[in-house]
Amino acid sequence: MVNRGDREALKKELYVLIQNAYGPIGGHVRVSSIDKVLDPELTYWEAIDDDKDPNADAVLFGKKNRNGVKISGFGHDGTSNSKHDLIAKQKATLNKSGYWLEASGRPAEILYGQGVPYVKDPKVIEKLFGMPVTWLNDKGWYIRDINKELRSNKETVFGKPSV
User: Fold this and answer.
1) Where are the beta strands (DSSP E) in 22-66?
2) CA distance 23 to 28
3) Other CB atoms closer than 10 Å to residue 136's CB: what's the count?
């Protein structure tokens, strides 16, 4: 685990890992600058080091809430080893009770392909978010209306949230 003091010392390194993953799609919505790595709501950080240099090669991050730890994002150094290790870490983490994330697009395809558990019950999704969802199919896909102006993408919850 990476504590706040470590994040202060490593914020540039962690930000670069996050930018490697999210830069091609315009960046991570919550970690839009180096100082956002210190966002006090982001309480879960796990760095992965898969080689001999002292730098982290990948990172998972998120926040604790009433349903466990919601993983908000990840980062990697761009190498195939770090991406492989990141996927393995996500899979192991999401197989533990109380860890979960929402995914769509390519990340969801990867998680499905890795056999990561996903929520198959719309009532569980509605309890997680405290709002009704439009349930799309038995693969766990749903859409939720966040407010009058904002509708979510088609998403799935992976992992084992505490509900």
Assistant:
1) 44-48, 58-65
2) 7
3) 14
Please answer whether residues 29 and 48 qualify as being in contact, where contact means their C-beta atoms are separated by less than 8 angstroms: no
3-state secondary structure of 19: helix
How far apart CA 41 and CA 53 sit, in angstroms, is 30
pLDDT in tens, the chain (163 residues): 776 678 888 899 999 999 999 998 899 999 999 999 999 999 999 999 888 888 889 999 999 999 999 999 999 999 999 999 999 999 999 999 999 999 988 899 999 999 999 999 999 999 999 988 999 987 899 998 776 666 667 899 999 999 9
Measured CA to CA, the distance from residue 133 to residue 135 in angstroms comes to 6
Helix (H) or strand (E) holding 10: helix 4-22
In one-letter notation, the amino acid at residue 24 is P
Q: Which two tokens stand for residue 59?
A: 């990172």
